[in-house]
Amino acid sequence: MNRDPRPIHSDLKSHRIIPEPEKPSRWSFLKVLREYSTLKQFYPEINPYAEVYQFRENLYCIFTEGLCKMCGDMWCYLIDGPKKAMLIDTGMGAGNLKALCQKLVGDKEIVVVNTHMHLDHIGGNLWFDQVYCHEYDKEQIEKSITPTFIMDATTDTNGIPNETYYDVNDLPPFHTYEVIGVESGHIFDLGDGYEVELFHLPGHTPGQSAFYDRQTKCLFIGDTTSAFGAAEGEKHPECCTILALRNALVHILNTIGEDISGVFPGHGTIDLHPISLQYLLDTANRILEHPDWYDDKVMFGETEMYAKMVYQQGSDLKYTMKGVR
Residue 142: phi, psi to the nearest 5? Predict the structure, then answer.
C-alpha cells in the first residue's frame, strides 16, 4: 500500500522538503479548509507564509507551516478586542506576523502571549517588543532570544533550510524583547471589560497554559499531546507529567467546562467540541492507572515515547515513563 502523504494545495512561500507524515485525524479537515473553504484569506504581499481563517466574528486563526521536522504545521490565534487585540502564539517567525495582524485589526495595541516555550510557538516573538507567558516558562523563552534561534533548528551547517523550504531573509530582524511571566488566573483586559484568562495547563512544558476568552467562550490550549518528563535541572518537575495535565484538566472542566464553546489547539483540527477535553482527561486517567498498557511506541526525535489513543480523536497522548507522575 502506498503510504506517501497526499499533498494539500498551498500557495504559501514555504513548502516541505521532507513531507510530514499524513495524520488521518487532521488531513481531511485541512484539505477541505485550505482548498475549498470560503473562510480563507491570504495576503502574500504582507505575509506569504500565512493563511488566515475567520472562525468567529472577532477571531482570526492564522495557519503557518512548521519549518523543521519536529514542528508540525501551526495555528496562531488573533482575538480582536474592543480596544486591544491578543495574539496567542507566534509560530516560527517567517513572514511579517506583526504587519499581518495590523492588517486584520488596524492600529490597535497587540497583546502577545505564548502558550508555552517551544520554538514553533515562540519563533515570531521577535516581531514584537513584549510577550506574556506563564511564569514557569519565562526563563526558557528568555534563553531563546538569540540571533540564530530559528536558523539553528531549521537549517544545515551552510544555512540552507533542510526540512521545509523558506527564505531565511524573511525571518524577523533580531532584537531583544521583554518576557513577562504571570500566574494562573491572570486576566488580560482587551478594553471595555473584554477579558481573557490564563489557565495553567502543564504537562507538555512546566508553564504550558490555556487562554480562555470569557466573551466568546473559546479556549485556546496550545499543546496537550505529550508529557516528556522533567529535563535535568528543571525547577518544576511536577509540572512535566501526565498527572499534572490530568489535574489541570479537572480544574478547567470544573471551572468553565459547561461554558466552553470551542477548543482551539496549536496544531491540527481546530474548533473542537468541548467534549474533547473530557476524552483527553479520560485518556490521562487510563495512563495513570496502567502506564504499561500503552497502544503503541513512537519516536519523538531521539526520544522513545509511549502512546495511548484518545477516544474519537484519531490522535494519541504520548508520554515517557518518567513523565507519568
Answer: -60, -35
Model confidence pTM above 0.85: yes
| Cβ-based neighbour number of residue 266 at 10 Å | 27
CB atoms within 10 A of CB 159: 10
The set of cell numbers assigned to 111 is 497583546
Report the 10 Å Cβ neighbour count for 174.
11
- Residue owning grid cell 486563526: 61
Phi first, then psi, for residue 279 (nearest 5°) are -60, -40
Q: What is the pLDDT of residues 54-93, one digit of tens each?
A: 999 999 999 999 999 788 899 999 999 999 999 999 999 9
**Model confidence pLDDT, tens digit, residues 213-256:** 999 999 999 999 999 999 999 999 999 999 999 999 999 999 99
